Amino acid sequence: MNGAQACLAAAQGEEEGEDKGRDAPPPPPGGQANDPDQDAAIRPARDAKNKGGLSAGEAEALVELGNSVGVPSNGPESHPDRPYTDPHIHVGPVDHIPVK
Fold first, then answer.
1. Which of 32, 41, 43, 81 is the most buried (most CB within 10 A)?
2. C-alpha angle with apex 49: 44 to 53, nearest 5 degrees?
3. What predicted TM-score, i.e. pTM, was given to this entire model?
4. Domain for residue 19, yes or no?
């Protein structure tokens, strides 16, 4: 587990190396399965979205982690001219993860 992953795991209350029995994210439609490092970025993104979001620091770390392992990630951003105006990030297939 690298530093960014450990930071995200700690922020989510997980111990290093603990998996909590979660399955890896499914492969993208019509695409190749993610490698373990990419799953390590996508899984906390899904968890954060389901839990209502991340702090600004956690969001920055997760975007950095995603980009470092080849998962398209960006933000924080907002779209004042579109329906989703609250600050959020995107990590791979997980869109609009709120930033608190």
1. 41
2. 95
3. 0.67
4. no
